[in-house]
Amino acid sequence: MKTTKKMRKWYFGVVDHLSSRNFDRVTFIMYCYGLWDILSKMLIGIALFKWNALSDGKSYRVYGLTVVIFYGIGLPTNYHEIAMIISSGFSFEGFSTSFFTYDLCRISMAMGTPVSLDFL
Prior knowledge:
This protein is an all-alpha fold. The chain has five helices and no strands.
């Protein structure tokens, strides 16, 4: 109830109320988690470029196998995460449990998507 009253104040009252949350998100969460998420995707892109995977340097068989392997990991993992969240009724426990497979899913989909686009 207190939060609702604070959120109905004038503009600078809302800014004052949300500033501590935004500060935590922008500083702590970004540098502890977000930075590594971004850097891991950059390293994947560098590796794909170095392996000539982004410039049609491989055969269709290699591209097809790469798509099957990485999408074969990423799509079922995504389905499992979504099923956990929905079955928990979108509760905090469902989201926190599905977070354990988040990196595996993101990296496998990040490896499969550029290669699949190049495969087409």
